[in-house]
């Protein structure tokens, strides 16, 4: 991808990519800000570039040494060795067999284990997202303006039965009528739609649901006044601007071009931590209705996912987790991560079909 860029910009884009590979929370927006920041600085030395990167990527103090090593590797050509996660990191999957010894072959199960495609390894790819028409999305677009959650604004507007007198209007009316006020005008607080934050798991274990989830995301982006949409896999990708066009095919094509980790590995905890590490993104969740579409089959450190969900629940107005596994009547959270986050969720619902997700979003206001 960097080969198509002007030579002067390549190292800056490559540096952001290398930071992400080493599990720094770097978003595409921060990469753009970094490049623009360097351009504005007109750097007089490489130290100016390093200072801009440290500030715009919000590098935590405990990781500055690692950051400096990566910076030297990219901009000074110094080589470093950093381990990358691989399938071999999974415990218990590799056994050493002595030559000539007996190898016990286990019979394969008839049923595949749920989430068998979930992996911590990053696999980058692109594919076309199918934009089929869906009756459920048309119904959602029709009902959303009235049923999406709303909150009272601090601003006030004139109203016949408001809870406060409108002093300014009263004075203007009195000035026109020689000091007489026939009817005391009133005002009340406005209502506005509450922000909705949609986080979509696009890892391989969610491959069957990804297209439908992104089609719903486009419908939500068109119907809601205030919405932010991200995808989670081994990366965090903000696709809200990509879904702005009203044409579904065009919007989904733009979103697909941004999602590099689609059908790849699963590091939900790291992606959520990246979301919370960017102050702008974390601000989106404050007082919002946050919805996570994911099976919750975390293959990274469960502690990261539990900590991120706990922090999200504190900031959000409501935090709902929709999983396709919930469509099974006998489903019960059994994985360590999914079981541990239950106390922090407002709802654990079904998210396997567009109809279920759309109905859930339309009923958030009633359930809260």
TrEMBL record:
<dbReference type="InterPro" id="IPR002035">
    <property type="entry name" value="VWF_A"/>
</dbReference>
<feature type="region of interest" description="Disordered">
    <location>
        <begin position="82"/>
        <end position="117"/>
    </location>
</feature>
<dbReference type="InterPro" id="IPR008912">
    <property type="entry name" value="Uncharacterised_CoxE"/>
</dbReference>
<feature type="compositionally biased region" description="Acidic residues">
    <location>
        <begin position="101"/>
        <end position="115"/>
    </location>
</feature>
<dbReference type="InterPro" id="IPR011195">
    <property type="entry name" value="UCP010256"/>
</dbReference>
<feature type="domain" description="VWFA">
    <location>
        <begin position="193"/>
        <end position="366"/>
    </location>
</feature>
<protein>
    <submittedName>
        <fullName>VWA domain-containing protein</fullName>
    </submittedName>
</protein>
<dbReference type="Pfam" id="PF05762">
    <property type="entry name" value="VWA_CoxE"/>
</dbReference>
<dbReference type="InterPro" id="IPR036465">
    <property type="entry name" value="vWFA_dom_sf"/>
</dbReference>
């Amino acid at each position: 991808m960097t080969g198509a860029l002007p030579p002067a910009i390549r190292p800056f884009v490559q540096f952001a990519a290398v930071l992400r590979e080493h599990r720094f929370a770097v978003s595409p927006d921060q990469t753009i800000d970094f490049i623009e920041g360097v351009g504005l600085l007109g750097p007089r030395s490489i130290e100016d570039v390093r200072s801009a990167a440290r500030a715009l990527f919000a590098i935590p103090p405990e990781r500055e040494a690692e950051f400096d090593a990566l910076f030297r590797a990219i901009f000074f050509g110094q080589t470093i060795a950093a381990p990358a996660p691989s399938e071999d990191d999974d415990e218990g999957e590799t056994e050493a067999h002595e030559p000539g010894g007996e190898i016990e072959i286990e019979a394969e199960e008839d049923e595949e284990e749920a989430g068998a495609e979930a992996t911590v390894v990053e696999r980058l790819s692109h594919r076309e997202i199918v934009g089929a028409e869906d009756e459920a999305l048309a119904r959602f677009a029709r009902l959303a303006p009235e049923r999406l959650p709303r909150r009272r604004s601090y601003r006030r507007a004139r109203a016949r039965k408001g809870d406060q007198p409108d002093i300014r209007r009263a004075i203007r009316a009195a000035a026109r009528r020689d000091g007489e006020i026939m009817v005391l005008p009133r005002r009340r607080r406005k209502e506005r739609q509450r922000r909705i934050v949609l986080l979509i798991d696009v890892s391989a274990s969610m491959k069957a649901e990804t297209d439908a989830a992104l089609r719903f995301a486009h419908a939500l982006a068109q119907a809601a006044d205030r919405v932010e949409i991200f995808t989670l896999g081994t990366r965090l990708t903000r696709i809200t601007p990509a879904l702005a066009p009203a044409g579904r095919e065009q919007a989904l094509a733009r979103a697909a071009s941004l999602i590099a980790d689609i059908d790849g590995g699963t590091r939900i905890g790291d992606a959520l931590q990246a979301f919370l590490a960017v102050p702008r993104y974390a601000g989106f969740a404050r007082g919002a209705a946050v919805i996570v579409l994911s099976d919750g089959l975390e293959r990274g450190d469960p502690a990261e996912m539990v900590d991120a969900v706990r922090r999200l629940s504190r900031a959000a107005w409501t935090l709902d987790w929709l999983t396709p596994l919930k469509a099974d009547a006998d489903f019960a959270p059994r994985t360590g991560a999914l079981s541990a986050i239950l106390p922090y969720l407002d709802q654990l619902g079904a998210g396997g079909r567009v109809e279920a997700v759309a109905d859930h979003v339309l009923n958030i206001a009633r359930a809260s």
